[in-house]
Hints:
56% of the residues lie in helices and 10% in strands. By secondary structure, the chain is α/β, with parallel strands linked by helices. Among the domains are: 17-120, Cupredoxins -  blue copper proteins (Immunoglobulin-like), CATH 2.60.40.420; 121-249; 375-468. A hairpin with a 2-residue loop joins strand 7 (93-99) and strand 8 (102-112). The radius of gyration is 24 Å and the shape is globular. The termini are far apart. The mean pLDDT is 88.
Amino acid sequence: MxxxxxxxxxxxxxxxxxxxxxxxFTVVLESDGFHPGKITVPAGSVVVFKNRxxxxxxxxxxxxxxxxxxxEFDAKESIQEGNKWQFTFIHPGIWRYHDHxxxxxxxxxxxxxxxxxxxxxxxxxxCFIQEIEHVLVKKGLDxxxxxxxxxxxxxxxxxxxxxDVTHLLGxxxxxxxxxxGNVITTEKTAYCGYGFYHGFIEALxxxxxNFDQAKNYCRAVQQKLSETIASPNAIYSCYHGLGHGTxxxxxxxxxxxxxxxLTSALTTCERVTMGEEAELVKQCATGVFNALANAYNNETYxxxxxxxxxxxxxxxxxxxxxxxACFREVAASYIKRVNISEESAIAMIAHLTDxxxxxxxxxxxxxxxxxLHLAAPLSSWAKTCQEISRSDxxxxxxxxxxxxxxxxxxxxxxxxxxxxxxxxxxxxxxxREACFAYVLPRIRSVYNREKALAVCQTMDPAYQPYxx
Length: 468
């Protein structure tokens, strides 16, 4: 009897060692993807990535192309056919990854907690992503959307840094759509600047490259949401996602040539939106320029800001809408990157001789400032905008602040701070008018018809025509 008990004890010990003792695992990239696509390893284990794909590869953590989910998990360079690269996983969690050179190829590595695990200070965004990942695995997309909604409504720091989380949900929604054609149309997809649709469309393009399927999905979502939301702009966010995917799926051979990559992506936008309304072409282009700005910031695709002429690429844009999009994304991003004071940033923008560019840049810069400082007194924003010497820049500044306050406002009350700001006594009459004219139409894009009307009716009658 003792022998039998002892034998069972040995088996239990062996099983425990097998489950929790670090060891070496192998993942192989072949022409059709990573094999195995999913593995679970004890913390402290080494995963060897072998390349048998017939081309170079570059394994790295999601998200593409920033790799910030698990920043250390990044080969940092291409690995040639027949070679390998290895990485030791010490942080427990569910880590999605991809081939940076062919981002439609990817996999998942789940790292179990063990005595060899290393705890790190939890960065909020990564923690939130991991929380949603776990819910996705256990309860599926519906459960993840429910948890996402609770976080958004109850955790202030989540709502100000949730864009990549919505990308994650969009990717999961694409996987569900690909399996059974299910279209997710909950109002939660509008949160965090419609990042859900950016993630969905990027995942679709990374996987299939099928622009017609992507456009059909955008239309289906718009039609479905129109049944409840007064005037949803999901289709515009979808097309913004098209622009992202168009830029980020370009061949490795194009990397390093920002002008060539930009021209190719914009040409694709024009081709796939041919015959459609101008706003859809514009939104696709904004996605392209946003992806370019991200590439400059993260120094991906062998691209970097030209510090001697950071907005030169924007000045070359002859199309006025492309120029606006470029300055809003690239120029504003550069100014944030150099990390100067708000006063110095506005002074730099005011010195731009291109008036279109200056207005687009101050709008985007102030929108981001408002997002990052939602608790700042509204009077301080009014003071900042009013002190700009040029009246046109005052208006763009005012509209930018109002947009940031609205897009990142409390769920169900997105309008409150934005409208309060527009009515601030610190703004001139002209700036108040421009602010209300810009913000009030947005109410219809996030609320159902009844709520949009109710909010509009609380406004001064002089401003109600903007939202009725």
